Inverse folding.
């Protein structure tokens, strides 16, 4: 078997030795903190009547004024032929512009609750030493996105919202609608036993839409120190979208430009050689042209 | 190492034919998936007859296209009336509804639930809560209703926010005792808002009066039927021949 699955307790050990356990998990912790804070902001409303953020990820209201809505849900509504209130559209625009600036799939790794489910499946996969598999094409998510946007036109219903697992966790926790949780269990099992990173890496249409939104975002992970790479492959093991790494490590351009990158920063964490860093594309360009 | 490398090379080394075959396969899979989800959606879009939508809700099919299931209406309701439907709840998952028998709508004057709705699935044109049509109350069981037994329960009548308009008591001779009167609750479907307060308070173990969605509660004449108001029909009109 390959070196990847043979490393047992050795995973990211070099980084931990080099930087200490804490710093070798820095972005993982910041990410979990961010995911949980968003959730807590929603949850303290119904729990303590502290309404900083009302609603859920499908649509919400920040501080009682700023509307925020899921662009995918909003698109579906519009495609059914229903013209929503302007609030919903404005909310979707605010979210779209925000992620276009900070990086589309930042939503996936820093906000989306399903990420915790699929990350734990992937962690368990590593612990159980299950073989790496990836038979599904990554482009499936764009096909699924197309289907999700086509069905409202054909049926007049926001069909995907019946089964969309992304808002399910929030609805379960905030509105005690726990019976949808089986979807998340299904995703966990799918990711764990059937195909690695099946959901977030190959299927989720929300992630696909955010990837498209973030195509032009200036914030990227960059292999600034690619020369120092000692081919330990730790970043390939943790990266949920590992196809994005090779061009940056081996190619001419150090920047990870592929919009599939979720900007989770795990590659930065686990690299003892400090190969990766968050970079601002505009600043980096300026540096290079000097 | 080898694994990653080999999977990479197949990804980059796809030729045109493989690409077309892959797309066709993915297309078929997505088609099937789409049909699957649609049938789930279609089946569960049947609303439970006792689940009532919030005030201002569009007709059920329009409502299902519009609602993004954000729960803002639920959080805006000061009386905890509204709930978001769970899977298998008899309303499309994630959409708001209420069960009148458990918590009815208190008919807030400023209608916060409608104001909160970002999608317009609760119609923002509804500004007078008395105009809302969440459902229609129906006195569904004349056998067990206490007033039909000649008693003066009247609880549903007295609790109605539109007393003597949406619900009235019709005095009728009591055939059984022969010298008492019966006061029969009667709902005026033009005025009833479907708030469900009557169903909520009905003293029976099972309410004799129930709020039903309008499409179940109301009859409808076929479009080709013409209703003739006999009181206003004159002999002259009959001679002219009625426009049937
Ligand atoms: S891919 Fe989808 S489910 Fe996964 S993190 Fe992104 S939005 Fe969430
Ligand atoms: S390249 Fe790095 S930041 Fe991007 S998804 Fe992979 S691990 Fe995360
Ligand atoms: S009118 Fe008031 S009580 Fe009725 S559903 Fe709306 S917010 Fe709740
Ligand atoms: S506020 Fe509107 S869009 Fe949100 S759940 Fe209620 S009815 Fe649906
Ligand atoms: S539902 Fe009952 S209480 Fe409410 S308006 Fe109609 S008759 Fe009155």
């Amino acid at each position: 078997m390959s070196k990847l699955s043979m490393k047992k307790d050795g995973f990211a050990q070099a980084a931990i030795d080099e930087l200490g356990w804490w710093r070798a998990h820095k972005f993982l912790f910041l990410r979990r903190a961010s995911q949980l804070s968003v959730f807590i902001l929603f949850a303290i409303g119904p729990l303590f009547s502290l309404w900083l953020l009302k609603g859920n990820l499908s649509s919400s209201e920040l501080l009682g004024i700023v509307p925020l809505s899921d662009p995918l849900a909003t698109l579906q509504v519009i495609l059914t032929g229903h013209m929503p209130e302007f609030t919903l559209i404005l909310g979707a625009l605010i979210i779209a512009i925000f992620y276009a600036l900070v990086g589309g799939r930042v939503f996936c790794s820093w906000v989306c609750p399903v990420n915790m489910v699929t990350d734990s499946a992937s962690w368990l996969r590593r612990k159980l030493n299950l073989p790496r598999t990836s038979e599904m094409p990554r482009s499936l998510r764009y096909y699924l996105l197309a289907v999700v946007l086509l069905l409202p036109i054909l049926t007049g219903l926001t069909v995907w919202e019946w089964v969309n697992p992304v808002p399910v966790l929030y609805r379960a926790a905030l509105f005690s609608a726990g019976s949808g949780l089986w979807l998340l269990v299904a995703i966990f099992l799918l990711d764990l036993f059937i195909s690695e990173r099946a959901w977030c890496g190959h299927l989720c249409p929300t992630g696909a839409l955010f990837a498209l939104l973030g195509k032009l975002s200036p914030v990227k992970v960059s292999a600034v120190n690619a020369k120092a790479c000692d081919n330990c492959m730790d970043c390939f093991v943790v990266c949920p979208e590992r196809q994005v790494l090779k061009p940056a490590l081996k190619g001419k351009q150090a920047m990870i430009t592929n919009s599939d990158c979720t900007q989770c920063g795990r590659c930065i964490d686990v690299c003892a050689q400090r190969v990766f860093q968050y970079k601002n594309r505009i600043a980096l360009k300026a540096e290079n042209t000097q | 190492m080898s694994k990653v490398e080999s999977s990479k090379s197949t990804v980059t080394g796809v030729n045109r034919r493989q690409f077309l075959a892959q797309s066709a396969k993915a297309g078929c899979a997505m088609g099937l998936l789409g049909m699957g989800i649609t049938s789930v959606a279609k089946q569960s879009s049947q609303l439970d007859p006792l689940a009532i939508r919030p005030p201002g809700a569009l007709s059920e099919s329009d409502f299902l296209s519009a609602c993004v299931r954000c729960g803002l209406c639920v959080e805006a309701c000061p009386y905890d009336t509204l709930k978001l439907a769970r899977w298998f709840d008899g309303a499309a998952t994630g959409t708001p509804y209420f069960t009148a028998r458990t918590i009815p709508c208190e008919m807030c004057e400023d209608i916060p639930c409608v104001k909160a709705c970002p999608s317009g699935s609760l119609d923002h044109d509804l500004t007078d809560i008395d105009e809302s049509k969440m459902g229609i109350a129906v006195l569904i069981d004349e056998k067990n209703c206490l007033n039909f037994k000649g008693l003066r329960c009247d609880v549903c009548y007295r609790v109605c926010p539109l007393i003597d308009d949406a619900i009235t008591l019709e005095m009728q001779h009591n055939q059984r005792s022969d010298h008492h009167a019966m006061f029969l609750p009667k709902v005026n479907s033009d005025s009833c808002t479907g708030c469900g307060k009557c169903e909520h308070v009905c003293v029976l173990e099972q309410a004799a009066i129930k709020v039903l969605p309008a499409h179940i509660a109301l009859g409808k004449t076929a479009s080709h039927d013409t209703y003739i108001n006999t009181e206003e029909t004159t002999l002259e009109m009959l001679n002219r021949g009625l426009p049937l």
